[in-house]
């Protein structure tokens, strides 16, 4: 099913289509993830249907369909987050599998968005604590970003003592990395908490060329 065919379907019809597809269906090989994600406009879907759409894409990708999040254009991914309501994002983050898949993908992309010309000689390890995890005993999903020597990398877990630790709810984090929330405002309202080198944390966001919505 090509982009033109998908464009003729409403977001609700796209979700229904995804649910009918079997991993062995020949139509899956014709699906274009970017066209599919563009058609899934969160503003035209309820909270449950938005989660259902992402769940079906994940189901088909896990079964071998070429629908992995890693192939989704950054601007289209940003659009899904930008136009999703807080309730929709919170519902996605309450879905254990989707939460992990989306957070892992965001941190995987950090290296590609890093701008060494902006970072200069700055270096440091940043720990992120994402609240509300049901997979971890202490309630946090933890990620580590390492900046230095003109590059950045990120991984799940912790290996090195941090220069700064950032604690934030995943819904606020998604809005932050798609440039739909202001770090100072999140900090002043207590939604973003910092421990360690606050000055480094304040400048760190400028080291990354974060995507914005393309629609």
How would you sum up this structure, described in words?
The protein has a five-stranded mixed β-sheet with strand order 3-2-1-4-5. It has helices at 3-7, 11-20, 33-39, 47-62, 74-82, 86-93, 96-108, 110-113, 116-119, 170-177, 183-188, 198-204, and strands at 124-131, 140-148, 151-156, 164-168, 192-196. Helix 2 (11-20) runs parallel beside helix 4 and helix 4 runs parallel beside helix 6. The protein has 215 residues and is an alpha+beta fold. The two termini are 22 Å apart. It folds into two domains: 3-94, no CATH class; 110-207, Nonspecific Lipid-transfer Protein, Chain A (2-Layer Sandwich), CATH 3.30.1050. Helices cover 45% and strands 15% of the residues.
* CATH homologous superfamily identity of the largest domain: SCP2 sterol-binding domain
Name of the CATH first level of the largest domain: Alpha Beta
Alpha-carbon Rg, integer: 18 Å
The profile of the biggest β sheet is: 5 strands, mixed
**Secondary-structure element pattern, one letter each:** HHHHHHHHHEEEEHHEH
Please give the number of β-strands. Answer: 5
Average pLDDT, all residues = 88
How does CATH name the architecture of the largest domain? 2-Layer Sandwich
Which outline best applies? Answer: elongated
- How many helices in DSSP terms? 12
Tally of distinct domains? 2
